Please model this.
Amino acid sequence: MPLTVPVILGSVRSDRIGIRAARYLIAQLEARGHEAPLVDPAELKLPLPDRMYKEYPPGTAPDELERLAILYRRSDAFLVVTAEYNHGVPPALSNTLDHFLEEYYWRPSAICCYSAGAFGGVRAAMPLRAMLAEMGMPSIPALLPIPRLQNAITEAGTPSEPRLEASAGRFLDELTW
Amino acid sequence: MPLTVPVILGSVRSDRIGIRAARYLIAQLEARGHEAPLVDPAELKLPLPDRMYKEYPPGTAPDELERLAILYRRSDAFLVVTAEYNHGVPPALSNTLDHFLEEYYWRPSAICCYSAGAFGGVRAAMPLRAMLAEMGMPSIPALLPIPRLQNAITEAGTPSEPRLEASAGRFLDELTW
Amino acid sequence: MPLTVPVILGSVRSDRIGIRAARYLIAQLEARGHEAPLVDPAELKLPLPDRMYKEYPPGTAPDELERLAILYRRSDAFLVVTAEYNHGVPPALSNTLDHFLEEYYWRPSAICCYSAGAFGGVRAAMPLRAMLAEMGMPSIPALLPIPRLQNAITEAGTPSEPRLEASAGRFLDELTW
Amino acid sequence: MPLTVPVILGSVRSDRIGIRAARYLIAQLEARGHEAPLVDPAELKLPLPDRMYKEYPPGTAPDELERLAILYRRSDAFLVVTAEYNHGVPPALSNTLDHFLEEYYWRPSAICCYSAGAFGGVRAAMPLRAMLAEMGMPSIPALLPIPRLQNAITEAGTPSEPRLEASAGRFLDELTW
Model:
């Protein structure tokens, strides 16, 4: 069954490497017949949260929030791609997530974390699990950490090692199951 | 000895109650003879991090980052006032913090967390401890949680209960010691 | 459909109050027609982990591990009742949980946290969410924190306030759904 | 100035590799002229916490708790060596730590985390930071993660790579400073 799985990226840096992980996972999801739209904070340019989407009277929310709400409501699962800033969740990610709440309810989520260094961003994934649970989209057990992402996936989006393909495959199996 | 202790607030909401906790703690610090400037993300309007302060060539960083860097370098300690969003650190706070790193080194920090509900934001304080440690400003053991902040401190900045004054006093004793 | 939901308690103290929360939730689950056996570390007296259950050759594990393995394999969900020790997970709980792994897979879990003080043990619940996810039994979004448990539930197991009954009801609805 | 720095190990497994990290760090501390006694839960065999040390009337606590209390009171800092069990703190570590509280106050601590795999146990270090802070011994910013410890340090206690010596050196500099 084709699913809708938004891929939410958590970085706005111009030289961000995370976009490689997002694009690779989108391609893998699409190859499996799913719809996997990229939710990109660099394009969305959402302000720091003053009002949540649900705090706007119907029809008055900014366009980009309205579009996200429509997308989220028809989604089956969420894939979150996160960097690690100071051992925590990047503000570009929490800011993208925090504008919504009920729209996420009752769907599973999955966490791909990455870093330029050796530990793959796994420290950010831990508080992120707590946040995703509170947001009503508990994360699946499998975690996909990608250390040294700049080497692990080329700019063109090809994994450099078969091991990543295998682990990404199992990760997506678990999410889409 | 008079100290410089920036009070970093982590909310930009127009109806934020956190400003009451920040103002109360600033008044207490000033009453003890310290300098306690408010670092307010609603005024700073820092963008989501593309470049950190240190990634700008000297003299080319935006004014508000330059002023913060000067303040942080001459500071003796940091007081962080945080809400809890979805059991995590609010993006307005991580965004304010993440623009700097070396500027914080070798000073202690302290966490005041608050909520409109019963649990005082203590869940956000836990990952925040890890972030502050990684930023080189480990947090003091004492935590100042303020549940139901809207009742605990009046708009004029007066605590409604003597208990808060006592615990805030011990908290600031520990930070300024 | 009647479910099997082990209730895993995380304290061995002789004067533990957590047993009240465990017994209350067991009674509620049984009233709904489910089987809810208590997993009590004070009775089990499991040693600190040298070998996990799965590291014993078949048939050679200690009796109490063998019985737990049989129970866990036929379970539909797990309910974990945790105190908070130094803002973390009590060793009596992690020790009870860490002896098993694959036996938990593919079932949901739920967290009831409690404290003698005001914050209901919610700080321990956050790293516990990460542990339960890694153990293959991701926790449901709803959390049941019980502050001042010694007053909230009598020794006889009756809640002192209707509010707890309502929130426990919604919590169990979500777990058994 | 010679310091007293207990090295608290968090594993009781017979085939534990963590003992290599503990012995290596003890040797390094001793080479710097410090006293670095090993606190080994496998020898101590402390029961899961029923009563904390301070809950015993003076002179009635078990010998091993009495000896630890004397050691801790005259210590200048604590070095904690932790594995990662299910992304959390091993019960052998939390159990060793949780028997005491005031005895730790006002000293810094440092975290060495390790794993047999690639991520060096850094996930366990995050909730451990929160616990150590609450215990009154906030952890220094530097973290010493040792991935693939079984290869990184030989059984005889010699690091296989100069990089580990350099990072351990900086880590101990920061702790003893």
